[in-house]
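Agenda item 2: zinc ion complex prediction
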Amino acid sequence: MHRGVSSRPAARSGAGRRRGAAAGRAAACGLLAALAAGASCTAFEPDPLTPAGTSVGNPNDGWLVDGVAVPDRAAGLRSYRGRDHRHGSRRSVEIVTETAAWLAERYEGAVLHVGDLSAAAGGKIPGHSSHRAGRDVDLLFFTRRADGSAATSARFHKFGADGLAVGVTPPVRLDLERNWALVEHLLEQYPQDVQWIFVSRGVKTALVSWALAVGAAPATVERALSVLHQPADSLPHDDHYHVRFYCAADDLSWGCADRPPIWPWVRRTFDRVGHAATDDAALRELALGEL
Ligand SMILES: [Zn+2]
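Presented output:
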């Protein structure tokens, strides 16, 4: 991968919009400060050279610079939220759209329903304490109806460890094959990017049981045991996935910040840079890209 230096010239393209967004934030900040005299106010002013689609800070108090919008519809993908909160970092949106297309290619008619990401400029959005830096995305589970047909509408059903939707008649169940395929794809194709897939303990149990039953790779199951997680400080996530991505390598130098844990299989950019700096050929490639 040759990321970082070569992407910086693209930064200028969104600078005008960005100045406008920053001014809007500064104005709102000033109003809040006036209403609450004495309150501190720290409007975010991105470096004007920051490339569009860069995640800055961490998911709970960060920002997004000219977020990339997930489309209404794409191959294997439907967005079920309005457009205001559908912006992510370049890398997050790339992973979500590729994963949806991959699933649709593998499973005819598969549709990944995509919910909230972040506002175009990041920051607090209603209903979420995170989702501020373009690295969080809500996805609905793949489900099946009683007759075995795939459910195609975007519905928030709560599921237990038995894979059945709670209190729904006629019954709806998790499509464990497709749900595991989603998790497996994320963990095998994007192991450097996926930090968490928040789901309830019940759904995690159902997914891991399925993975073991179909002979999934032990290394992938081991990653899943870490990454699939019921958060302690929010809803149990028994009706949707919340996927959190690490900072992309490019974004680290612009102030993107990860919170722990960094899983043992994840290599950070500074590891690669530290290694490359001892080798002139690798340093040249890092600085100039592939010539
Ligand atoms: Zn979420």
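Discussion summary: The two ends are 13 Å apart (CA to CA).
Owner for follow-up: CH.
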